[in-house]
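Case study.
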Amino acid sequence: MAQHPVTYILPDELDLEGLKKIISESNRFFEESPVKVKQTYYDSFDWRLWQAGEELYQEQGENEKLCWKDRKGQLLPSCQSIDSAPGFAEDLPAGQLKERLSKLLEMRVLLPLVQVNQTRNTLRVLDIEEKTVVRVVVQKNHYSAVKGKNRGELESRILLQPLKGYENAFLKLKQQLRSLKLRQSEKSLYEDALQGVGRKPGDYSSKLNFRLDPDAPAHATARQILLSLLDTLEANIDGTRANLDSEFLHDLRVSTRRTRSAMSQIKGVFDPAQLEPFKQGFGWIGQITGETRDLDVYLLNYPDYRASLPTAIQDDLEPFHGFLQQHHKTAQAELVKKINSPHFRKTLKTWRSWLQAPAENATQAPNAMLPTAKLADRRISKLYKRVLKDGRNIGADTPAERLHELRKDCKKLRYMMEFFQSLYPKPAIRGLIRALKVILDNLGEFQDLEVQAHSLEDFGEQMLKEGAPASALMAMGILVGKLLERQQQARAEFVELFTEFSGESNQQAFKQLFGAA
Amino acid sequence: MHIIGVYNIKGGVGKTATAVNLAYLAARQGYRTLIWDLDPQAAATFYFRIKPKVKKSKKLLRGKIDLDDVVKATDFENLDMLPADFSYRNMDLRLEDSKKPTKQLLKLLRPLSKAYDYLFLDCPPSISLVSENIFRAAEGLLLPMIPTTLSLRTYQQLLDFLQGHRITGLELMPFFSMVDRRKRMHLDIMQNFPDAHGELLKAQIPYASDVEKMGIHRMPVEAFSPNCFAASAYQALWMDVQERLG
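After joint prediction, the assembly is written out as follows.
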């Protein structure tokens, strides 16, 4: 039977010498010289590894390695040697670790979160051949913040580590230590260290997860939603400014879009005149962030673009990559200027103080005092009906603009369902959001591919002026063809997908949840 | 999983030392590594202080028990071992009884491919059904050769065997082992051999007392004498192998 390692907390009344004495009563062991290591724990800004139940740290001691551990699985970490701090998964050396991390992290960069300085005393319990059969590791731990002076001591730990094929020796030692009444550690060293520096795992997520009161007046709920969106937006400013990864800007833009959608779709809860300057402000934020995001998307898609071409001409596309990188650099610099501008700061600051202002001055607006649940029902049914009507009128010859319009309405509907999802039974609303997402993906593909194809043509013209080789432009031409082909395919799939979405069972479900017809 | 056989028709050419030291280097680099001691002499098993005994070894060869259940951890991180067993001396006979006698080993190893990045097979000398199985299972074959005329002859024998049995796609990696630079013949052979054999690896393992001392310390050279000449020779060899296997 395979055994899992066990970690105990070293009690105050026991030290290394005491432990050695007890072990030596029935075992021979070899004491290794103490080793000092520094562990730096990493995760993405949105805690993707934590959410997947994993821990990742870089260990610097005799040699440098990156170790990966299942938080609950009680297994020992798997490690791989690296020669620089980890960043993007794609830059890691090839191997199992890279494969696993790529899937979880995608485009997100790893950020250092906390450090642990560890002194390890290892006792190797030996058999008659002087072969190690169990390892006992006493760990003294100190945490420290990655930046700043926050540091402190953590509980010392005893790790009992079984060796494959020597399980009996492990069980025997565990039995011998039973008299010490050691307490098993509940939290991992990582969790302890995070607590030390005042971080809480999962303290940022881009997902909407409001807990709303169905009876609260609608204007208060709207403020709650908008404030939370503002928090998310602001949390992403530093990462966007430093361009740590493309997802900071993306999340910043999504919260901007959601804010604009909430302002217009949670109707009649605020004074429109007061809201107007903020609508303009967030419109402006959407505008100034657009170009960099577009270029981010092209850069993220680049490997796929390249792979979609015949192997013989894949290299021809390289000048386009260079063009994108060059323009991204310029756009990013421009964006940073805007983010650092007084106008940007003032827009967010006045918005926050307006949202936090006492409710009395808020409103005579018609829906302000409506119970939240009622407003949510009403708005969602209305948007759903509009989506149904417009979607059904779309046939093979309908102009593309009508599909773009439908996409906008579907997005509004989705945001509203996501804002208010806590008011409804979880499986039911999740199911409907998923169903809507199928339509949104299809419409998104249709529109995005068209936009991409047109932008590629524009880029091509710019590149021509900048003296790009003809082979690059020809490769881009082939790429445009491929994109338009895929776009047509998305279009062809729409009617069938929408028929399914607008079918009887979803209609019933909408009606049941929101009272829609 | 990369499967690397370490083999020579002749014994006493530094085969086990190669398997043990390279497996150690692979593991230290972070690769999950397994070394299977297929030689009933059990030298590799001895170097890792493991008892040369496999529970139900006959069943093991018939694929009736999980290889993973008989694996032993060595004293080194990431490095596990399938120890030798005296019954391996009859492996030929057992393989002959099976349905596809030349591909039996490959079948046995398949379940391990997810658990390990590198598998080193320390092979018994001589050409037999066991070696043929190894040739068919491995991606690369490391061939330590003492630079003597007799070694060259056995290398040619191996090439003939592979050709005769239509074994293709096996990356042959001969290299010079137990090199004594004071011997004229060693130097001559090392100078001429590469002309006809581009597959020769550049690294050479010297005839060194540190390698022999592995038997006293019972661990890889790198683990007890990391700065010695032999240790750096094995490092160079491991780099050559990684480069060759890509």
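Observations recorded in class. The longest helix of chain A spans residues 426-465. The mean pLDDT of chain A is 92. We will return to this complex in the next lecture.
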